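thread: overnight batch results

M.L. [08:02]
morning all. the overnight job finished for the chain we discussed friday. pasting input first so we're all looking at the same thing
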Amino acid sequence: MRESAWYLSELDISKHVVPYAYIEEGHYFPFLMRDEINKGKSSKEGLFPHCLYSFPNLPDGLLRTSVNQLSHFLTAYINKGAYKNRRILEENTVSNILSPQLDKSELPKWLLNQGLSWFEVIRLDNGKSVWEHSGDDPGVSTIMSFCQNDGNGTIVFTNTSTKSVVDISKRLYQEIAAI
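M.L. [08:03]
and the structure it wrote out:
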């Protein structure tokens, strides 16, 4: 993942997509919006660009990467820590990360298990579960998931805040099942 970093200064920002916010009835985050929004145009509705922002919550969020780069990491999870016949995570580390951390009685009904930053949920129409990790900040929404039963995974990035990444991920699994 040589093109992944938490700090903008460590990246070629010409490759960075512009994050957008959907402004509705003047609701927005003025400290993240570009200057034209702050100069009185916030009464408009629609998608407006954010500035490229960062805040210090490492390693909680704001890792900047591409789907291609992140797919290497996801492949290692699917392969119990191995990527291209090289071990990058110990198998017991992956097992521990994907082990239940809470009693099931403490979880909401839609959540089967909570690992360490991964959640096991039923997302597939065939009843199979997937492990997923998602993120959401102003102007970005992401989800990375994989099915342990069949070794398939999905990664969805959007450059706007939206909850539809879960629906997109589920649809990708439906397409995989149809192949």
